[in-house]
Design brief:
This is Glucosyltransferase 24 catalytic domain-containing protein. With 47 residues, the chain is low in regular secondary structure. Helix content is 9%, strand content 0%.
């Protein structure tokens, strides 16, 4: 199962994500973008 949030746009082949080896773990997710300066102003949880 691949869950994509309703406000996300996929612009690539999801097959690469499906085929990713997560080494037997039950789930995988993206990290928070703390180092990405493009996220400045959108981190509502830090206000």
């Amino acid at each position: 199962v691949i869950f994509v949030d309703a406000d996300q746009v996929v612009r690539a082949d999801m097959g690469e994500l499906y085929d990713m080896d997560i080494k037997g773990r039950p789930l995988a997710y993206t990290p928070f973008c703390d180092n990405n300066k493009e996220m400045d102003g959108y981190r509502f949880w830090r206000q």
